Amino acid sequence: MSAGLDRRNAALVELMDDPGCDPARLRRTLHRFAMVNRLLSGWGRVYEAHVRPSLVAGGGRGRLLDIGCGGGDVLRRLVARARADGFAVEGVGIDPDERGLAVARATPVDGIRYRPAVSAELVTEGERFDVVVSNHLLHHLSAAQLDGLAADSSALASRIALHSDIARGRVAYGAYAVGVTPFAPGSFLRTDGLRSIRRSYTAGELRDALPGGWSVAAPVPFRLVARWQAS
Q1: Phi (first) and psi of residue 202, to 5 degrees
Q2: Which of the 8 DSSP states describes residue 41?
Q3: d(Cα 14, Cα 128) in Å, to the nearest integer?
């Protein structure tokens, strides 16, 4: 692995995480994430392998929670896929950053609501969901925060929790640097995407970082999914 990628660099700060960052560039970034996620995140395969079977087991009805939902594109996509398969589902997206929630609410969908919150608040409220997900969240968290997310997820999910993130590696870094360039102008996509890769885990690192009961798989190239399933 090339220099700068052999070890996870958790000290890097992404530009969009700055409360004072350019709001127009941030909005463009959040909007364009929908395209990037559709192309690269592998949620279609994760839906077929894990989300759909969990909804079938729930009798065709379900509640989905997206933790750190940002602009909400992943949650909207999962709800749309589930409804196309005939499931009666509703979704909740939570994020402590109102800037992302403003983008999410600009694309309203019946049965999906967004609220400013963190997962621990929903645990305290006694909320339960059939499926709990997150996208590009794990690499932002400290070790203590990752432990907290894992505990909260297993408390909130009645069936399955799925946290998808980038798999750090030289090929992923090089391919993203080239591939995202046409879509990056006027946004934080390129700089923050490359920093995200450097902050992210390898499969072995993520397995070691998670508590017992969690597994890690690579559903598509350059992606990892941490999974917890109710027994």
Answers
A1: -85, 170
A2: S
A3: 32
